[in-house]
Design a protein that fits this description.
The chain is built from four helices and five strands, in the order ββαβαβαβα. With about 110 residues, it is of the alpha/beta class. The chain has a five-stranded parallel beta sheet with strand order 1-5-4-2-3. β4, α3 and β5 form a beta-alpha-beta unit. The protein is globular and about 35 Å long. The protein starts with a strand and ends in a 16-residue tail after the last helix. This is Sulfurtransferase.
Length: about 110
């Protein structure tokens, strides 16, 4: 499974967050697309509409397990996708901003 380190992500990289709604509401990366893993297959079209053409999809969850599953599925669909190693826990730990739905500082649930 292709992976990328949080520290290697650029601010304009396309980020797909597959955590559940309560996790997203507590805190997420600003600008990420949110499609919970539990709804992913049904909402797959939202990803294909939102992702920039020919851009890599960086998939993130809390620690990397769920995002690895989604990234593998996307690769099987012919999409350039990678798992973000360590997920939002590492994202927050290295000081990347985490915001809630109001744009205020959030936290990783």
């Amino acid at each position: 499974m292709p992976t990328v380190e949080v520290t290697d992500l650029k601010d304009d990289d396309f980020l797909l967050d597959v955590r559940e709604d309560d996790e997203w509401q507590a805190g997420h990366a600003e600008g990420a697309l949110h499609i919970p893993i539990s709804e992913f297959v049904a909402r797959y079209g939202e990803l294909t509409e939102a992702a920039p053409q020919d851009a890599r999809v960086h998939v993130i969850c809390r620690s990397g397990g769920r995002s690895a599953q989604v990234a593998m599925y996307l690769v099987q669909q012919g999409i350039d996708a990678v798992n973000v190693d360590g997920g939002m826990q590492v994202w927050a730990a290295v000081g990347r901003p985490v915001v809630n739905d109001e744009g205020r500082p959030g936290f990783v649930l």
